Amino acid sequence: MIRRPVRVSPRIFAMLLCLTAVVGFVLTMFAPSPILAAGLEKASHWRQGQKQQPRYAPTWDSLDRRPLPRWYDEAKFGIFMHWGVFSVPSYGSEWFWWSWKGAKNQDFIDFMKNNYPPGFSYADFAPMFKAEWYNPLQWAEVLQASGAKYVVLTSKHHEGFTNWPSKYSWNWNSMDNGPHRDLVGELQMAIRNNSDLHFGLYYSLFEWFHPLYLKDKENKWATQEYVKEVGLAELYELVNAYHPEVVWSDGDWEAPYTYWNSTNFLAWLYNDSPVKDTVVTNDRWGSGMSCHHGGYYTCSDRYDPGVLQKHKWENCMTIDKKSWGFRREATLADYLDMDDLVKILAETVSCGGNLLMNIGPTHDGRIVPIFEERLRNMGKWLGVNGDAIYATKPWRAQNDTREPGVWYTSKGDNVYAIALDWPTSGNLTLGVPKTSAATMVTMLGWKTPLKWAAVSGGGITIQMPMAAPSQLPCQWAWVIQMKGVV
Q: pTM here?
């Protein structure tokens, strides 16, 4: 279609010119002065800069000011899982490769000589890591039954094998080798779709025998080829792909945090990552950083200070006393029993910490019965006594002055005394609580109130229920709930 030109009469054209002049005059009168205009422009740029400015700068001074997400402190109890190629030999510990080829421990040399052909390399274990019995839904059910509120799975240990199809670990990952599955991704989906647990990942910053890492080490950390090509690349890949709410760093101790670019990664994690509002991190981000910087402190493996700490901390420990990974040679005496585990949980939470309790699945993907039994029994205990654990705060005293086997927690106007041992006399006398006319005493899981009496000079004597062991609400430790005490 051809459009004809629009014709404007001279009179209308003149009127349009006048109107344009009037509008220009009005705009000129009300326009800001050049100085004001410059100020407005500067303010606009400042506001834009504020939006673009990271909330947390890549410095420890800034990063350490980030509040710990509330969910983590309230969770109190999580499950650690160490799983990898080391689960195939399942001998000694998850440090098998280093013990064999790094430390050249004779026990490990003999183990290989007696059980594998000459020339067998550690890489030859990877195809045997098949995980053929790995059922993420079954894992999620067991983990949920444990009473834990979060789980931390090993995504990569010091051996370098990644349990996800990392594009930065060619043929040394669970998709190209071994199971030919995305082990991390499958558990992440099972956990998030079938439980209320928070999903987290352990990641080793270093690898014992990676040539790029060894080259940087030889250069005394003046180069960062490993960090750029592998370490940071895998961390960003993990966070963007699986959205872990715990990033549990390890393997940091040989090099300073500047080598690892830890503060830059954490600034991105807290400011721009898909989990920036909910993610929590630990303190293992460079030599000398542990117990000084990070979201919460781990300080050392099996850290259990026994006294209240000023900073949020976590006790990462193992049911198997000697190893984080599964061991075929473990005996019954090597495993902590329920009395041990409840005691550690009570001590840890009373002193302001979280307990991260570790199990080691087998190379074929099973949680063996002894681990499952411990997990389910922890869940049963927490099903009765969870009020004394979840979302609690440390009380003014952590353990009792008269009864050393009693640990305290608090929530609102409730004070909980976790008694690890049943008193032989049938009466539990506590030296710390101060009673009042409003004092009420009950036992979690027991329907009727308990009788009590004030102790001269302070304290309280509580008459425990007269019942057979099978009638008690639990078997291992008993929680006394007190209202109206100070």
A: 0.88
